[in-house]
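Follow-up to my post from last week.
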Amino acid sequence: MERQEIIDGLVEILKTIRTIDQEKLKSITEETDFIADLGTPSTELINIAAKAEQKFDVEFDDDDIDDLGSKVKDIVDLIIRTKKKG
Amino acid sequence: MEISGRKVAVVGMGGVFPTCANLDEFSEKLFSNKSLIREWDKAVEQEKKIRSKVSGFVTEAEMNIEPVYSTLLENYPEVYIDLLNRIPDSNLSTADIGSIWAMLASLDAVKMSGWSHQETQSEVTGVVIGSGGGGHEILRHAWHNFFELDKKSRSIGSHTVDRAMVYRDAANVSCLIKNRGVCESIGSACATGLGNIGYAYRLIKFGLQDRVVAGGVEGTSLETFVGFDAMQVLSRGFSPEESSRPFDKDRNGFVCSFGAGIVCLEEYEMAKARGANILAVIDSYYNNSDGDGDMFYPSFNGQQRLWKGLLGNSEIKPDVVKAHGTSTPAGDAIELLSIVDCLGTKDYHICAPKSQFGHMLGAAGAVEFITAILMLQKQKVLPCLNANNLNQEQENFQKTDKWQGPTSPLADFRDILPQQSFEKEINSITCLNYGFGGTNSAILISKDNL
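User reply:
Got it. Predicted complex:
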């Protein structure tokens, strides 16, 4: 799965989270920070992770979620890494 | 301790009421002797699993609220959307349906109060709002998915706590209006609504706050309805509008209803100084417990002590008593007899708003407090709808040796139980509410400038 394909999928998830400023999703990149740039409440990060598991058909380890950064690239990396683990 | 000379004014009110778009429609329907009780489709769908099928319910669509269901869990309302943009999305994300009603009602009440942003957000502005039930719609689906469908905890998202915690209504309102004073919730079952207003009154009377947003909420919940249905205490066998019949001989249970009532209280001299429209003055609040160890059965003695505590040696006699009047066989008889034992049988009237909209549980005391304010404003007494036939015989408990109250049958009090709304000079009103656990609350309000 290409990284851009994953980002597009993440944007679809972010569109369902009403506390995120939807305008900012138009210019999202791998360096975009969910909290600092998108204003995502920190309580929503676990919702994003859970929905990413469903969308990309993966199951994250609890340790990986604990260590997850708040940038788009962090979750893209985690999805790819988890998929590789099979 | 009370601070001598410090008084408390009611300066704003708002609510969520069955079949009504706003407070004006609520008032118009009540004083037109209408019932707000309907057959409830959600109860009817359960067919023989539920005995009672009527309720004073409020739907999400009626309040212009739309649920967004989770893609991760079955039937889980992940968040609600306010189609009229009254509440920001960030506040909606932490709210169950009852908290949303509390926020909508608070916005209306604060607007009516005329408080500035500075006053609302002051360190001496508090929020005291409670609820009878507990975020059932959120918890039922979350726990079902976790325990029965084996989903991970993170699949239920991070908002089951804030959307279901005991003081969620107060917390959500506080986060919305950004007050800096106290934020708490009083729970006392069906006395919750009045208990929160009474506690708020004391916060001001005792000099701890200058303003408080106070009230009670009961979000529409089939789970709550089922719990009472299981106790066999809900009305059945009548048309919806005739189902709630406090004091009537054929009453057989209460109508389980839902709604919200919020009022703004303010220290009287401050309200007066800024030219506020003072809706009423709170003269006294008192609450106590039966002390007889019975969770459910009402206590004549407890209510006698309640009246004594409320009125003391003041010799005040209210023009209207807003009764708890649930339409349950035991509750109404004890209540009526304790009222006449204290006030006699003349020169006042009893009204029972639950006859028109049912029993709103944790919201009841607050919504009924609002009906008392409306009575003061309109100078009209609300009815005891459907109190058509009063028992001409003594109640069974009146025939026992240990009964120490009035021995007259309820029919002897026909003159003080109006079946229709009517005009009357009203200067003061007492509101009564009781709850499971043997808790009793009473408040006395009067017109300003008496």
